[in-house]
Amino acid sequence: MNRSLTGATVQIDFxxxxxxxxxxxYLRSKLREDYDLIVRxxxxxxxxxxxxxxxxxxxxxxxxxxxxxxxRDGEPSRIVPCTIRSGQTEEFPQGSLIIYGDVNSxxxxxxxxxxxxxxxxRGNAYAGTNGRLSAVIIAMDFAPLQLQxxxxxxxxxxxxxxxxxxxxxxxxxxDVIIIEKFVKF
Length: 185
What we know:
mainly beta; seven-stranded mixed β-sheet; five-stranded mixed β-sheet; 8% helix
């Protein structure tokens, strides 16, 4: 269990939700079980006043779907409700991936859009494989072997310990991948 988030309270706001009640209950239980997060409430609405990720471009959205359904930007998303183990690859070139679990060392995730890992990222993550440089990679614990966004690559130090808070990787100035504290959804 990730102790850095223990006791935190979260509010989940869905924009144009496509999750049914059973899937929302599963999300609540996984956040409680794996991260000891308390879900204060689930807001279902059609529009959001601000983008879901403050560090990402304002056109960025994450859809809450289990199947490939187009978002308002026309990019589909896929939820993977399990950990990606060593030797496994999860690939979704049409859009974004949301992983409910870890990406273990030796595991690999590839997405045409963003990658969100609701666990520890220890393996390889390749976002923006369709050339989208505005893609981001987010993880609750960030300890990847290799990151790639578009054609920019970043290899992490193998001795680096995760800082204990969520982080986001994105393309910064001079087309370099920067990793920083993920402060706000």
